[in-house]
Amino acid sequence: MTTPDFAALAHDIKLWAAELGFDQAGITGTDLSEHESQLADWLAKGYHGEMDYMARHGMMRARPHELLPGTLRVISVRMNYMPEHAAIAHVLSDPDKGYISRYALGRDYHKVLRNRLKKLADKIAERAEKLVARPFVDSAPVLERPLAVNAGLGWTGKHSLVLNKEQGSFFFLGELLVNLPLPVDQPVAEGCGNCVACLTICPTQAIVEPYVVDARRCISYLTIELDGPIPEEFRPLMGNRIYGCDDCQLICPWNRFANASQEPDFAPRERLHAPQLLELFDWSETHFLSMTEGSPIRRIGHRRWLRNIAVALGNAPASPMVVFALEQKRDQVDDMVREHIDWALARQADKLARQDRKTARLIRAVDKGMPTHAR
Questions:
Q1: String of b and e for 9-46 (b: at least 16 CB within 10 Å)?
Q2: Could you read off the pLDDT of 4-47 as tens digits, one per residue?
Q3: Kind and range of the H or E element at 46?
Q4: Which residues belong to the annotated binding site for cob(II)alamin?
Q5: What is residue 74's DSSP assignment?
Q6: Cα separation of 124 and 103, whole Å?
């Protein structure tokens, strides 16, 4: 192929990407050397927590050409996921409900994007017979966010996510590595300015400095990646967040411009959209696997699912029904989950005791003829 052919192909690739349901596509080279020192520093500080795979692959994450020898360009794509009726405030403000990060309400995005990227590769192969391509969706040691930024899909926000002027940060990323010398796109200007809303809103202060997240403090890490006990210091701060956390995105001014996704696969599953904690806690492992089939939630397993919900029940308002549910489940789980149930029971006991003391004070006030609001 001649150089003008590659320019035409790059143009068509973006058209094909749109036809396949991607909301944007950009093209960049493979040079991420400027990010290697930042990655090394992040790993050295242990900010990756128990995600050993982050350290195991070392600097390969910043070297896509090592992942697929012969790679010359990376086609970076994004796909919006915010559902039409997200019900975010409705769920987060109701401590009896369980909040699931909005990206996880529908079908597993890994499968959706990967299948579309394969189809994109097939389209390109029709024009480039010697194409060597490989798709990735959060499934390989590659720095997808810097690649997306270099491809012009957005800029890096202070919460470390990619921000786009038209869609904020509510989108998935995917990459297609190719051996074609396609013309590259240019990065866009940074748009955060002096805003630090994401740093201040984080419940656990996981954004330790602009652009740097200590995963060990992040609720998404604690509820999804962490396999063992959740540190007690973070449990009260998690509220009713049982799978992931969107706070740093929700506060971001750019997300006011986010459009709802038109992708049917990302439509919320009814039983996960605004679920009651007690209902979710009652799910057996078999029912959990059935209800989360094809969902990204399934990867955490029933054990971590119960652990997360136990914490949320500990943070829920005082309720004999919650105490009963926790006690009923206590002898059906392993030691790790039991520890969280015991923590939740202690929290509930304290709240019920305070509730009883308040009731007793009100009764005494009434008996003495005092206003019921007296303390």
A1: bbeebbebbeebbbbbbbbbbbebeebeeebeebbeee
A2: 599 999 999 999 999 999 999 999 999 999 999 999 999 999 99
A3: none
A4: 61, 138, 156, 162, 173, 220, 245-246
A5: E
A6: 29
Specify whether 138 is catalytic.
yes
Q: How confident is the model at residue 2 (pLDDT cuts 50, 70, 90)?
A: very low
Residues 6 or more apart whose Cβ sits within 8 Å of residue 83? 102, 105, 106, 260, 261, 266, 267, 268
pLDDT digits (tens, 9 = 90+) for 258-313: 888 989 999 999 899 999 999 999 999 999 999 999 999 999 999 999 999 999 99
Taking the alpha carbons at both ends of the chain, their separation in whole angstroms is: 83
Whether 319 contacts 290, CB under 8 Å: no
CB 77 within 8 A of CB 113: yes
Residue from 12, 23, 108, 138 carrying the catalytic annotation:
138
Positions at the binding site for [4Fe-4S] cluster = 192, 195, 198, 202, 218, 245, 248, 252
The H or E element spanning position 166 is none
How far is residue 232 CA from its own chain's centroid? Answer: 22
Residue found by looking up tokens 């970076």 in the block: 76
DSSP state at residue 224: I
State the average pLDDT over residues 64-83.
94
What is d(CA 25, CA 172) in angstroms, rounded to the nearest whole number? 12
C-alpha 131/C-alpha 180 separation (Å) is 7
- State if pTM tops 0.85: yes
CA dist list (Å): 24 to 20, 35, 131, 164: 11, 24, 22, 10
Q: How far is CA 193 from CA 187, 212, 250, 343, in A?
A: 17, 16, 18, 42
Residue 374 has pLDDT above 60, yes or no: no
